[in-house]
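As practice, study what follows.
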Amino acid sequence: MNAPVIERARPGDIGEIEELLRGSGLPIEGASAHLEHFFVARVGGSLAGVVGLEQYGEEGLLRSLAVREPHRSKGIGKNLYLRLVDEARSLGIRRLILLTTTAEAYFAARGFRKTGRHTITGALQQSAEFKGACPESALCMELVL
């Protein structure tokens, strides 16, 4: 297998990104508006994974971490996640927030802890994910950087 290449998403990637997100049961709302802080993993030139960041001042929303089935459990998700954390730090983000219905253990293993949605204030509350793209039942988690 070719080694995965992690790079910034390009505008021409949005169709493939949305297809991967839909196939992974993740929302696509708001993704195209924040594409400048999305990263993709390519294996042999094909899109294998994606992760996105939305910046709201010193807070960031980690969203859309997905890896295609044949490429899972090979470190691609971890590499995408680490690239996103580097990006967040470079932007001056001090707290990463995420909503999840399926990946609590994955993110807990990376230092995220549960927090109530009521702790999220300001502009981040206006993100598509907090305004309904993610269900109310989604767990809110945070990581202080």
Summary: The chain has a mean pLDDT of 93. The CA atoms of residues 124 and 139 lie 15 Å apart. Residues 76-90 form the longest helix (15 residues).
